[in-house]
Amino acid sequence: MALLSQKARKWLRIGLAGPGAVIVAVVTMAGMALWLPAGAANIDNIVLPLVLFPLIWAALFFHACLDRRLGRVALVAIGLFALHAGLVTQKFIAQSAAKESRG
């Protein structure tokens, strides 16, 4: 038995494939800069997420469009969002704590 109507499932899928995929891809791109190694020129951790952004967005978009189980689509998107948003939040909290301890 379905918990959502067909119309609600359609709009949820559109939301996950459209603005949801873009938002999760942007947050993932921001979080990737924190866990990727810096590389020889110390810019690889910034450039690589920018280059991979279209691939991340496309993967999320096609996953939302093609997967039969809407719950799995939402779980993957929410998981990526929560993980990378947590990394970015932790970085900002650590920076603000360092500024407060200095002055």
Jot down its keywords.
103 residues; elongated; mainly alpha
Tell me about this structure:
By secondary structure, the chain is an all-alpha fold. It has one domain. The protein contains 4 helices and no strands. The N and C termini lie far apart (59 Å).
> Helical element count?
4
Mean of all residue-level pLDDT scores? 91
Helix and strand element order: HHHH
Structural class: mainly alpha
**β content, as a range?**
under 5%
| β-strand number | 0
Measured distance between first and last alpha carbons: 59 Å
Taken from the alpha-carbon principal axes, the silhouette is elongated
Q: Which percent range fits the helix content?
A: over 70%
Main beta sheet = none
Ranges where pLDDT stays below 50 over 5 or more residues in a row are none
Radius of gyration: 17 Å
The figure for the number of domains is 1
Secondary structure blueprint with pairings:
Layout: H1 6-17, H2 19-35, H3 44-66, H4 70-102
Helix pairs in contact: 1-2, 1-3, 1-4, 2-3, 2-4
What's this entry about, in short?
This protein has 103 residues and is mainly α. The chain has one domain (10-102). It is built from 4 helices and no strands.
